[in-house]
């Protein structure tokens, strides 16, 4: 058995920030999950629907691995990432880091992981690997999935090799702090501005605040999009609130990030943005509850109510980001 020493194998709410926390704590940098999410400019929105999809998807964050790239660039970290189509080489890449005494991040499809009780394909899932033996790999996943867990090396290979939306080619990565680490406190306002600029300047209408507005137009018709409302709508609501988002489609995480920033920076615009994202988090939870009720009852009135709230959320988040970009 090979195990990295001095690992703090604790899970948090979201998969990518959970893995980042494991890697950075081992490097000596211990930041809260909301701080990692915010410094990585992780908040976004996408209304994703295409001909090949059985049902639309509401996403609340940037693309998988973009958060890691953003965080590394913001803090001056050395990000070393490897990809391969060879399962043998993929294992060697991951095991080499552990052999060298370092945890390694892995992007994979969680469908194949043996400890997952809900078997859904999602190719943007991220875990930290901190050990292995002849049969199993030792991982850190979200608290919801068990925190410190294990899965067979065979199942891990399948998860890493899976192809489909949001997958990577058996991506593994490590993070290294520079000899003189940047003061992360100095990067708070630049990270907030970066996130606000991207949110407000989204290039297509199903991203950012315009994407939320589009969702407000489309969600009321969701009962006509599905032959199984109970399954599809309740699954959509579950993903928004409990699918590793930290609640409220990542808005609770961003609210808490802004709250931590407001304790360090005396700025009324920042405090106002924090209050507005507190309001948004409550409303996003209301939206997911209404979608779940529509799936349970088949009553379209719940989706109409959700649409009204989504239009309000588009206005609230646009206004909040306009304030935050001016910090």
UniProtKB/TrEMBL annotation:
Butirosin biosynthesis protein H N-terminal domain span: 14-142
DUF4872 domain segment(s): 155-324
Pfam families reported in the protein's UniProt record: BtrH_N (PF14399), DUF4872 (PF16169)
Name of the protein described by the UniProt record: BtrH N-terminal domain-containing protein
């Amino acid at each position: 058995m090979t195990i990295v020493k001095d690992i703090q194998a604790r899970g948090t709410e979201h998969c990518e920030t959970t893995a980042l926390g494991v890697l950075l704590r081992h490097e000596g940098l211990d930041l809260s999950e909301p701080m990692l999410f915010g410094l990585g400019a992780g908040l976004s929105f996408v209304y994703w629907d295409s001909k090949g999809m059985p049902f639309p998807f509401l996403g609340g964050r940037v693309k998988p691995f973009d958060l890691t790239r953003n965080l590394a660039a913001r803090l001056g970290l050395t990000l070393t990432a490897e990809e391969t189509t060879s399962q043998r080489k993929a294992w060697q890449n991951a095991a080499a880091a552990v052999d060298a005494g370092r945890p390694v991040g892995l992007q994979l499809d969680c469908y194949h992981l043996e400890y997952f009780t809900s078997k859904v394909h999602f190719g943007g899932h991220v875990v930290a690997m901190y050990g292995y033996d002849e049969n199993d790999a030792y991982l850190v996943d979200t608290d919801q999935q068990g925190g410190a867990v294990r899965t067979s090396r065979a199942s891990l290979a399948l998860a890493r090799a899976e192809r489909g939306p949001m997958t990577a080619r058996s991506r593994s990565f490590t993070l290294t702090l520079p000899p003189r680490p940047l003061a992360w406190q100095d990067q708070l306002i630049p990270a907030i501005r970066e996130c606000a600029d991207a949110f407000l300047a989204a290039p297509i209408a199903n991203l950012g605040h315009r994407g939320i507005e589009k969702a407000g137009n489309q969600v009321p018709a969701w009962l006509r999009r599905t032959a199984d409302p109970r399954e599809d709508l309740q699954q959509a609501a579950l993903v928004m609130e409990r699918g590793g988002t930290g609640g409220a489609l990542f808005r609770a995480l961003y609210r808490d990030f802004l709250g931590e920033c407001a304790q360090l920076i005396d700025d009324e615009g920042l405090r106002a943005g924090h209050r507005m994202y507190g309001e948004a988090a409550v409303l996003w939870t209301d939206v997911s509850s209404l979608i779940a009720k529509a799936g349970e009852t088949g009553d379209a009135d719940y989706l109409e109510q959700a649409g009204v709230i989504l239009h309000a959320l588009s206005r609230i988040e646009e206004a909040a980001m306009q304030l935050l970009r001016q910090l």
